[in-house]
Design a protein that fits this description.
The chain is α+β, with helices and mostly antiparallel strands. The chain has 1 helix and 6 strands; from the N terminus they run ββββαββ.
């Protein structure tokens, strides 16, 4: 199953996001216009919002911050990120994870 806002490449989850900086709290607000809509409290200054976004996604997918890489959009609101080996499926992520296998050993379900 593939949606416009995410794609699997082996054990890496690629996400299309549209970030909202200066929000009241760090959270994922769902999917809007075929993009994941994370909200972060940090302003879009000197990479602060990107750092909050990386920390938010790392926390949601239960991976180290180093496992979340920004692929494009570092200075804009629309970004493309990779989450390597997500260990948890957040409640807002209603799409299925691939079955745990030799090609995807780090996937663990938590519903």
């Amino acid at each position: 199953m593939t949606a416009a806002w995410y794609e699997w490449q082996n054990d890496t989850l690629l996400l299309q996001v549209s970030i909202q900086p200066r929000a009241s709290r760090d959270q994922v607000a769902g999917v809007q216009d075929r993009r994941l809509k994370p909200r972060v409290t940090a302003p879009p200054v000197e990479g602060a919002a990107n750092e909050h976004l990386t920390a938010l996604l790392a926390r949601e997918f239960r991976v180290p911050k180093a496992a979340v890489k920004m692929l494009s959009g570092e200075t804009g609101r629309e970004k493309r990120l990779a989450v390597h080996g997500p260990r948890s499926r957040p409640a807002w992520f209603d799409a299925p994870f691939p079955q745990a296998s030799k090609t995807f050993p780090s996937c663990r379900y938590s519903d």
